[in-house]
């Protein structure tokens, strides 16, 4: 896991914890909000450090958030399945969901969103 992913994941987990334990939110909603907040941190760190992108923010961000839009659906859908249907503990559900989401997000970012543009 890269530092960007770890930082974004930490933001998501803090939001999940605060949402459920302090604000009385459901785990699915808190996780979904945390994913969105973590995605902003991830974008900035990935753009500038992990992939050292030379693309414009318009191009990179539009591709990145397309990848993360699918990732958000994966995250939220799996959390709803694991917590609401399978009655899993929300932390166990989030850890499993995070593992699946990190693979999707990294591969989509590496091979599409932040892929170096070829000289024309």
Would you spell out the secondary-structure blueprint of this structure?
Layout: H1 3-22, H2 27-50, H3 57-85, H4 90-113
Helix pairs in contact: 1-2, 2-3, 3-4
Q: What's the pLDDT, averaged over the residues?
A: 86
Largest sheet: none
Strand content: under 5%
What structural category characterises the helix and strand content? mainly alpha
Order of helices and strands: HHHH
Q: How helical, in percent, are the residues?
A: over 70%
Number of strands: 0
Shape field: elongated
Unreliable stretches: none
**Rg for CA atoms:** 15 Å
What is the terminal-to-terminal distance? 33 Å
Tell me the number of helical segments per DSSP (H or I, 4 or more residues long).
4
Description:
By secondary structure, the protein is an all-alpha fold. It contains 4 helices and no strands. Helix 3 packs antiparallel against helix 4 (90-113). The longest helix is centred in the middle third of the chain and has 29 residues, at 57-85. 34% of the residues are buried.
Summarize this, please?
This protein is mainly α.
